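Problem statement: downstream parser choked on a complex file, so we are re-checking the raw output for the heme C run. The parser issue turned out to be on our end (a line-ending mismatch), but while we're here, posting the original submission so the record is complete.
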Amino acid sequence: MKASTTAAAMLCWLLLPLAWMLTAEAQDEVRIVEDSAFETRLRPPVPFLHDAHNDKAGIEECSVCHHVYEGGRRLEDESSEDRECSECHGAPGRSGRLQLATVYHQRCKGCHEQSSAGPVQCSECHPR
Ligand code: HEC
Ligand code: HEC
Ligand code: HEC
Ligand code: HEC
């Protein structure tokens, strides 16, 4: 009796931080693409359930989106998830803004077109 109570208590101490970590992670998940370089927007920012999206689409390499280039070539096993796309791709300013929107579209819409899955219409990504 005593031993099992102790075991149960220990299990609680082990599980509590785990539960806390899982909740924290769920709350931290990116739910929208809202690059800080677009100070004003022509379209609403794009709902994007980061982890769920990547699971469903079966994307395993972070570097498919968070890439790192060196000497004009993409490094297969390095990634840049600690940086926004705009830290390397344009904005603010008119041409930088266009460039930034273009790389987002190339990456997101490009894959959807290629895999015939996922939204390709403006209003499917930018809700009205
Ligand atoms: C389909 C594209 C895509 C893939 C694949 C992807 N991400 Fe992301 N990720 C994004 C976008 C878009 C954002 C939000 C814009 C930004 O911060 O660059 C983002 C943001 C993040 C952030 C910043 C979170 C924050 O609060 O600012 C982290 C960390 C991150 N991703 C980690 C990862 C890891 C780890 C993987 C691989 C397991 C991964 N991502 C795979 C597209 C992707
Ligand atoms: C650490 C800097 C860096 C970050 C962060 C970065 N990129 Fe890039 N990206 C590059 C470089 C360098 C190239 C090579 C072409 C060039 O010189 O513009 C490139 C090329 C591209 C291209 C064209 C080639 C290709 O891979 O299809 C697209 C599209 C692109 N990036 C989208 C994105 C998106 C979307 C994000 C954010 C999720 C992002 N990039 C984050 C540096 C970066
Ligand atoms: C490497 C391929 C790939 C890239 C890159 C990619 N997607 Fe997707 N996306 C998919 C696939 C495949 C689906 C369909 C998944 C399914 O429903 O089976 C999808 C579905 C979606 C959906 C529908 C809802 C959902 O979450 O399933 C949205 C919204 C979406 N993508 C937004 C984006 C955005 C925004 C980006 C760029 C930041 C992006 N995607 C980049 C492959 C990709
Ligand atoms: C697959 C998803 C997807 C599709 C389809 C798409 N976009 Fe985007 N677009 C994005 C993402 C992601 C961004 C970056 C969002 C952000 O950071 O606010 C973006 C950024 C933009 C921007 C720059 C930010 C702003 O609002 O000023 C404009 C303009 C834009 N898109 C217009 C369009 C138009 C017009 C179409 C249809 C021809 C379209 N998009 C289709 C995902 C998409």
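For whoever reads this later: The mean pLDDT is 87.
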